[in-house]
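Integrase (Alicyclobacillus ferrooxydans), 299 aa
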Amino acid sequence: MPSSHVGIYQNLRRQLDKLFRHVNQGSIETRYRYFEATDRFCQFVAERFRLQKFENVQGKHLIAYLQHMQEKGLRASTIKTDLSAIRFFHDQTNSRYELPDNKAIGQQFGASIERRHFGQIARAWSDSEYRNALELTAAQGKPQIGRLMEFARVLGLRLHETTRLTTPILRKALNDGYLTIKGKGGLVRNVPLTGTSRIVIQKTLQEYGRQRQSRLFVGPSEKAHQVNKQVENWVYTHRDRFTEGEVRLTFHGLRHAYAQERYSYHLQREGGDEKAARMAVSRELGHGRDEVTRIYLAK
């Protein structure tokens, strides 16, 4: 971003921060996801339109951003989520402008946004992509990002769940044989430990367990959503260096890889009963819908 636009973006970011602090609608994961998406939008409108006030966002800005995301090759599901995020925070303002819904945008833009087709895109990281990404974090001196990626890969944690981890939580997991996590929608789940996840937890306690801050990966002067954004930005910036296929890797794709590995395990344990295996994976992921599990298992 040109230096002349940095101040404009920072001003928009402060406005977004204020909205984020005062909104309580939806789950914390959704709010973080929406915050990150809207922050990217703020960078775009600061540079493209030099927009000073978030409440002055209009349909033309939304359509321009839609075109921008489509030019980048983003999936329809990602675009829809990002547009929903922008509307979510815009609704918290006293704006005199009403943002168009997806149908209206499609009419103005000349093409409807593609419908979502669940379970047709393989989002999971391969083992070699995962290894190469970890090696890159080590080479760049960013071991914390690598460690957060490990928790997503070996325990199926969402990004915001990894930045909530504390020393007592991990020590209890080693004693219990499972990690207790409060996830999306406040749902509590117990994720069984494997030999690999035990090693990751033990290494984490050795390296971070003596720090004074309550959350292992969030520094005293940091906020969890800031760390989450740093990690997502790192993956976005560097994924071309370790991606092997055509699918754009995201941090969440590590959770897909975990789901597929656990499905193979449970399928053998359940004697080939696919539904029973999917339900077991569903419980470990922290939701109860079979159709969502099928999305994670897409190959």
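The mean pLDDT is 87. The longest strand covers residues 178-182. ok done for today
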